[in-house]
Design brief:
It is built from 16 helices and 6 strands. The protein is of the alpha/beta class and 369 residues long.
């Protein structure tokens, strides 16, 4: 549950950054030297989108550079790429040497461009994508650039949404810096109206209600309402269960488990996920009744993709039974699962599980004498 309460600090820091606004014209490169390719101007209109790739010599950056070379070749003349090295000019010249690079390489001698496009707490490798008009369309970690780059080059990018989300983040950062949690919640709720199933936004709203405004009951009600609106969202059920455990709401946990079972009665993978969530808590926080209900639901699923999925379900139910102090029943279901597995490794593993349950059963019988 730490992710719930790290988001406040995250927002106050990461969302506040350089004054580079999505939708605004990109500033021209300054105080730099082109060491590969012909010098280019990035400001203003161009026949293609432009990708600015901020990079420095190092293992992770080198991997991203290799990917970027591949991307540049794939897009050909549909994309202009400028890679901006953050090391000194001599090191960059030595690194590239006689290598053939399919785009311009710039030495950012005084880090003027890094400071212009990146926030203080952002790191290279980093990308900024400009549209054909020279306006900033996207900015973020290089590892996340592939999808928006494809959309921008193909003309399918939702530019208006990107501008709106960027404004939300900047306004939110300002509100968080002022500790104006009420306004931060208003901003987040407005964005949730546009993206009602955005789990990150929902968690942030819950975070604000709980820790920012000190209204945990309202936070819980928000999650309960979301689960009712989107009952087939398994991740939402998981978040809700974790929050209920955080507040020690045992009766509500059972009610939520029973509701989730009605939504995923024929989805063993989803039920398995909920069992894993429940069993991730310390013993004193677990609800044996909720676990048993989930285990029985998994046992009673009528349709499985294959024998292996059925075996996994039976083994999970056996694990639940063992936790509920029913080792004999756990052993029986584990033995039923074994013939459904074909892989030698899995058979070896289930033999160990069966031996474990047999030992527990033998010990239990000895202790009862």
């Amino acid at each position: 549950m730490k992710q719930f309460f790290l988001l406040l600090a995250f927002c106050a820091g990461v969302l506040s950054g350089a004054e580079v606004i999505i939708g605004a014209p990109a500033p021209e490169l300054a105080d730099c030297t082109f060491i590969k390719g012909d010098p280019v101007k990035i400001a203003g209109k161009n026949s293609t989108p432009t990708l600015l790739f901020f990079w420095s010599i190092g293992y992770a950056s080198n991997q991203e550079l290799g990917k970027m070379i591949g991307e540049a070749k794939n897009y050909g003349d549909k994309l202009r790429v400028v890679t901006i090295g953050c090391d000194d000019e001599a090191k960059l010249r030595q690194f590239f040497g006689t290598k053939e690079i399919p785009f311009a390489v710039v030495a950012d001698n005084k880090l003027a461009n890094v400071n212009a496009f990146l926030a203080e707490n952002e790191q290279v490798p980093f990308c900024v994508i400009l549209d054909k008009n020279g306006n900033i369309a996207w900015r973020g970690a290089a590892a996340k650039a592939a999808a928006p780059l494809q959309e921008i080059v193909s003309g399918k990018y939702d530019f208006a949404k990107a501008v709106r989300v960027d404004k939300y983040k900047r306004d939110l950062a300002d509100a968080m810096a002022k500790k104006d949690f009420k306004h931060a919640l208003e901003l987040t709720d407005a964005e949730l109206q546009q993206n009602p199933e955005n789990l990150e936004l929902l968690i942030f709203a819950v975070n604000l209600l709980d820790k920012g405004l000190g209204t945990p009951d309202a936070a819980q009600a928000r999650l309960a309402d979301a689960v009712q609106k989107f009952p087939k969202n398994i991740q939402l059920h998981e978040v809700y269960l974790r929050y209920l455990h955080l507040r020690h709401q045992r009766e509500t946990i059972l009610a939520e488990i029973d509701f989730a079972i009605t939504q995923f009665a024929d989805d063993p993978a989803a039920l398995n996920q909920l069992v894993s969530v429940e069993m991730s808590f310390p013993v004193g926080e677990l609800s044996p009744t909720a676990l048993l209900h989930l285990g029985q639901a998994i046992r009673d699923v009528k349709t499985y993709k294959n024998d292996r999925e059925r075996a996994v379900a039976l083994l999970l139910y056996a694990k639940v039974l063992s936790f509920c102090n029913a080792p004999e029943a756990a052993l029986q279901y584990a033995m039923q699962a074994k013939p459904l597995l074909k892989e030698p490794r899995e058979i070896t593993e289930i033999d160990a599980v069966i031996a474990h349950y047999q030992e527990i059963l033998d010990l239990s019988r000895k202790l009862q004498k």
